[in-house]
Design a protein that fits this description.
Blueprint (H helix, E strand, L loop, with lengths): L23 H39 L3 H29 L1 H21 L3 H18 L1 H10 L5 H29 L8 H4 L1 H15 L13 H20 L7 H26 L14 H15 L2 H14 L4 H29 L2 H23 L5 H27 L7 H31 L4 H36 L10
């Protein structure tokens, strides 16, 4: 489901602030700090899905093209993906408290800008800025939890964090439907962005008062050239997918995409140069030669490629083709989101015994959910919101089985010393895949829909989702074999490994 998967911290902090456990006042205070940072995480998670529900209304009011609508989602993800590792390192350099407050302030201001946007290009630019500020805010959440909870309370703190992540999607769908339908003060879709302003202000005030000053990590450096080159490469690669249809796929569109591939290749060469010169590359280059990790990262790409794009396509189809109002459209996803949370809890326990087999089973359940959705669309002329909600719970359960243990399965192939870098690459890849899926599958859906064939458009999109999920399962199986081979080759390793 989510998005928005949260990007893990680039350099997790191992040694928490001392006196946070021994002093009763500090112990009480740290739970309030936890409430502050997870509230920011909740606001970030809600924002992804609340915007999805409002997308058809935004398109109608701003007279936005299909490409511009996709860009509203995709540029946010591109900015976030390319800057989140830098955001984590800024927290190491300037302190998590300072960067967290700056990030929340920026996210609040850019949310206000999104709500005030008078045209689709302005909204796209505001969303780009919003994604950049989110990249400052979000990495500090996990960093703060690592800092303040090193005792037996850590498990409880992360359990709270996980629950908040799971509920953010459901809250986003529900709140988006309510705000768009109720049209508070005549604001319409703008309220889905304005709602961040009071919440952001409260979080900032509480953080200034309660959040402790965190120790800074010596020796951390930024890779500004790498960040700029990666952003340019992704923009050149994904941008043409967004606007290619509007530009009739002219030759220069393909040239820009080709330039994007060249820039991404140059990015890898640049990272090697940074490492040779004693710098701190944006990515850990040694992980690129780890076959199990790279296969796992490929599985991550294909899983998230069919993530946010699924919700975009379903939202557009329900509100435009089936004429389901925004509130009912948002409510359709609530059972899916709750089932996702339940599956996430189940998969964590089962993964301890069955390993990556649980993820592959989750992919199979997702495919079953897509098959059920296709059957309903084909056989029912006008499926109701209730019918769609019931069918989508199958897909949501499958997503929950995969997403919850996916990060630990992929990162289990990485040595402990590379866990921070690996988690950063995992989170970055997830958001790049989300953006690429919105651009590619969204482009196909809107192109077919423009010809007056909404149902065929959804069916083709479902076929693309299915292919992506099959590819995810294939790479998970390949990763499993690579991991087993590696353990067998290691002296003293266990022959029987789960999954």
């Amino acid at each position: 489901m989510h998005q928005i998967v949260t990007n893990p911290v680039d350099n997790p902090v191992d040694n928490p602030v001392d006196n946070s456990v021994d002093n009763p006042v500090d112990s009480w205070r740290r739970w309030w700090v936890l409430a502050i940072v997870v509230s920011a995480q909740f606001m970030f998670g809600v924002d992804a899905f609340i915007v999805n529900v409002a997308i058809p209304t935004i398109a109608a009011e701003l007279r936005a093209s299909a490409a511009q609508i996709e860009a509203v989602i995709a540029v946010y993800l591109i900015a976030y993906a390319t800057l989140v590792v830098t955001g984590g390192r800024l927290g190491d350099i300037y302190g998590t408290r300072n960067v967290f407050i700056s990030g929340v302030f920026g996210f609040t201001v850019t949310s206000l800008w999104c709500g005030l946007a008078q045209s689709s290009p302005e909204l796209i630019l505001a969303r780009l800025a919003q994604g950049a500020t989110a990249a400052l805010m979000v990495p500090q959440v996990l960093a703060t939890i690592h800092l303040l909870f090193a005792d037996s309370s850590r498990r409880r703190a992360f359990a709270i964090y996980g629950i908040v992540l799971g509920l953010a999607g459901a809250a986003g769908f529900l709140l988006g439907g309510i705000l768009v339908t109720s049209d508070l003060a005549g604001l319409g879709w703008r309220a889905v962005f304005f709602v961040n302003v009071p919440f952001g202000a409260v979080i900032i005030a509480a953080a200034v008062k309660l959040m402790p000053v965190a120790p800074r990590r010596a020796g951390t450096r930024l890779d500004i050239p790498g960040t700029i080159v990666l952003f340019a490469g992704l923009l050149c690669l994904i941008g043409p997918l967004l606007f290619g249809h509007d530009l009739h796929w002219s030759p220069w569109v393909w040239l820009v995409m080709s330039a994007g591939i060249v820039i991404i290749a140059a990015f890898l060469r640049l990272e090697h140069a940074v490492a040779r010169n004693g710098g701190m590359p944006l990515i850990d280059l040694s992980l690129l030669s780890d076959p199990a990790f790279m296969r796992g990262l490929s599985a991550v790409f294909f899983f998230f490629f069919a993530n946010l794009s699924f919700y975009l396509v379903m939202t557009m189809f329900m509100q435009k083709a089936l004429q389901i109002p925004p509130l009912q459209g948002g409510l359709v996803f609530i059972p899916l989101a709750l089932t996702f949370v339940i599956a996430s809890r189940h998969s964590g326990v089962r993964a301890k015994h069955r390993g990556t087999l649980v993820l592959i089973e989750g992919c199979a359940v997702q495919l079953a959910g897509l098959a059920a959705l296709v059957a309903v669309i084909e056989w029912v002329s006008a499926p109701s919101a209730i019918v769609l909600a019931l069918v989508l719970t199958i897909f949501g359960y499958g997503q929950g089985l995969v997403m919850a243990p996916l990060s630990s399965a992929v990162l289990s192939t990485v040595k402990p010393s590379g866990a921070g870098a690996g988690s950063g690459m995992y989170g970055t890849m997830a958001q790049i895949a989300n953006a690429a899926g919105v651009a590619a599958i969204g482009a196909v859906f809107f192109a077919i829909e423009a010809a007056g064939a909404a149902r065929p458009a959804l069916l083709v999109a479902c076929a693309l989702f299915a292919l992506s999920i099959v590819a995810c399962a294939a790479f998970l199986t390949w990763m499993r074999h690579a991991t087993s081979a590696s353990r067998l080759a290691t002296p003293g390793s266990r022959l029987e490994t789960p999954g």
